Amino acid sequence: PVSSGGHLxxxxxxxxxxxxLNTLACFPVFIGVQSDxxxxxxxxxxRGEENFQRMYNLPPVPYAxxxxxxxxxxxxxxxxxxxNGYLIAVNxxxxxxxxxxxxxxxGIYVLPSAAATLAGFIRCQQQDPSLAQKTTCLIxxxxxxxxxxxxxxxxxxxxxxxxxxxxxxxxxMIDKKKPEN
Length: 181
Known about the structure:
The protein has helices at about 5-20, 40-45, 75-80, 90-105, 110-125, 165-175, and strands spanning about 30-35, 85-90. It is mainly alpha-helical. It has a single domain, classed as Rossmann fold (3-Layer(aba) Sandwich), CATH 3.40.50. Helix 2 packs parallel to helix 3 (about 75-80) and helix 4 (about 90-105) packs across helix 5 (about 110-125). The longest helix has 16 residues, at about 110-125. The protein is globular and about 65 Å long. About 25% of the residues are buried.
């Protein structure tokens, strides 16, 4: 995910340093992902521009990746072009689907902004099916427990019990029988 651009810049720099040491078999392709509700870099990239335009008068965007004026934006654009990377924007539905897929298939609960990474990768695979055959590394930058709730909150029920009855209560709560010894 891309907000200010610093995270992806740091990753690219690390690979450039590794490349100068001749430790890489091949140089990776970098994909930066933004929310389509605030995507100054992805928009500049899609137009082939070297510089992004600051975005103004945006409605509130509930994602940590929403930065209308990324400080490292122009340098990041330059490096993405130089090393044949991509900057793309994904919509809210794609982000939510990515978050659900990570939770259901991998047991990982991430922030929506982190799930944009998977949403962007899925979009790139649709545009370039050969990506499915390549080794990939997706970076998920934040746990979902500190962000917005994707799933509706349930009303908590408080149960009072003694320690002696805790096993039975837990078994009842998860609708399983206590195993016999």
